[in-house]
Amino acid sequence: MPTVKYQKDETVMGRWPGSSLYYQVKVVGFDSKSQLYTVIYKDGTELELKEQDIRSAAGFQLRSRSRSRSRSPGRRRSRSRSPARTTRRSSSRTAAAVAAAAITESAKESSRKDAKVKDTPEADLSSVQTKEAENNSNNKHEKKEENNTANKVNEKPEAKVDAEPEKNQGRYNLRRRKDDGDAKPVETKAEEPEEKEAKPAPAPTVATTLDFGGKIGAYFWLLFLPAWVLFLLLQVNMEDPSLVNFPPPLPPLETLWDTQAFGIVILWILFQALLYVLPVGKVSELSEGMPLRTGERLKYRTNGFFAIVVSALVAVAAVYQGIDLTYIHSNFLQLSVATFLISVLLSIYLYIRSRYVSADQLALGGNSGNVVYDFFKGRELNPRIKNFDLKFFCEMRPGLIGWCLINFAMALAEMKQQGLDAPSYAMILVNVFQLLYVVDGLWNEEAILTTMDLMHDGFGFMLAFGDLVWVPFTYTLQAYYLVSHPNPLSPLVVALIVTLKLVGFYIFRKSNSEKNAFRRNPSDPTLSYLKTIPTATGKSLLVSGWWGVVRHPNYLGDLIMALAWSLPCGFSHLLPWYYMIYFIILLVHRDSRDMSNCRRKYGSAWDEYCRTVRYRIIPRVY
């Protein structure tokens, strides 16, 4: 067994690939075969480094003091002429800033603050710059460096700092991150010779940027979302669901609660939980995405397709046994209220348990310190009961499969209410289109492991309500609408709608497949035709294929499919077009968030990408 010099969870200093910059990192593990240490930065970036590229934190600080005190004679003479030369050097400060520090003592003090370099992703954070031991005695190199500094006195302080070229890249393994996360190293300051040795700073855990309107927005969404679902269900159930008849009459409060409906929802969730834990299907590990801040890589059993097949067989068997599934239609409001109550209870449990987990288990975006905001956004990133992942389960199982079950019940209710022997063409199209969408998602269940919900968002009311209430009780509005408001379709119209759906599905699936294949293996020969823009994070941005047409071709396919879902309902009322309208708002908002995040992560590379791929979702329109 080889000797392991650095132990797991030890804080050390790791060299950044292709440079002489060191940053604080945490040792995650050691691979005895490759003789590489896996280390993780505070922002989640993971590297594999050789032992010679790692320094102990204490030894690194001692070495820094030794170098600063034992300079060459030429360097000491140079510094004697300017006391401000004793100020530490930072990779993100320009030489002009060093020269300016020599003017007055006040300038010297201000130069000790962290300086930021604009529009330079490679040098966005202050870092520690150290040289190899053999360079300490190289007086020629030091004199040349001093001359270069003197020659740049007249440059503007805002001048950009050129990042060091990549060297010896083959010694490192910088893992690609599927979540498009920031791969910039966390700032680490060099210690002043006269200062005492500093202790490693703890990883930041408090959210500084708040989404969805911040703390005030959290209050609004907690009230608005349940009220909006209630409005939709009351409005669509009216004989004339026109918005002219707004607001719909409120039913008596006692009619909103039904114990049987509550029991049915509980049984449905438990049934899906049983299918989830069965040892069927593959166990997927998030091996190429962002690891947890603890360095842990969670595993997920992806058997969603198995779950929906079993659920379909059970539903058909229930109908065959005479169970009336039209109960779902006649008690839709009561079922939604019961599910809402469960989502609230789950959210309370999630918030309480998040108060007792370690800081590195929390989601940065949902840990603001404000109770209401954190309850809404979610504090804990991956809440688990042993190996049962609550967030992953709720994202993919009860609500998503329940969506298809509700649609099937609505088709039975249409036949019963309209006196039909078979569902109408419109109802068949809605059921088939949405079933295809859900089955495709469960067949490719691993893809959700790299989405924003799983990777970044904590699990709180926002996701619990969205997964359990919003999806099954608002995405089924088209089917619910058609039960009481039939819309006859001619064979030609049916063919046109089917064609539109297939086009949208083709764009959606092909673009996602191209992206996922590139993420898994960028050097795949079958993807050699793709053009990319390199970034400072080690990732590359696709600018050809589907991703060279628009920045989000998968969103485009999604919108076309949403259009095909709404067309079977006709144009008599706006309500069945709710999903299409909501989805446009959702995707535009998500694109806006994505733009802000990517500009922060990739800097000038992202600006170049935007110039190359001009349109966001719809070619030549948006």
Detailed description of the structure:
- The strands form four sheets. Strands 1, 2, 3, 4, 5, 6 and 7 form a seven-stranded antiparallel sheet that branches. A two-stranded antiparallel ribbon has the order 8-9.
- The N and C termini lie far apart (about 60 Å).
- The chain is built from 22 helices and 13 strands.
- The chain is α+β, with helices and mostly antiparallel strands and about 625 residues long.
- Helix content is about 45%, strand content about 10%.
- It folds into three domains: about 10-175, SH3 type barrels (Roll); about 205-420 and about 460-475, no CATH class; about 490-620, no CATH class.
- The radius of gyration is 29 Å and the shape is globular.
- The longest helix is centred in the C-terminal third of the chain and has 30 residues, at about 490-520.
- Helix 11 packs antiparallel against helix 17, helix 13 runs parallel beside helix 14 and helix 14 runs parallel beside helix 18.
- It has helices spanning about 55-70, 75-80, 95-100, 105-110, 135, 140-150, 215-235, 260-275, 305-320, 325-330, 330-355, 370-375, 390-395, 400-420, 425-445, 450-455, 460-475, 475-485, 490-520, 555-565, 580-600, 605-610; strands spanning about 10-15, 20-30, 35-40, 45-50, 55, 130, 175, 280-285, 300, 385, 390, 530-535, 540.
- A hairpin with a 2-residue loop joins strand 10 and strand 11.
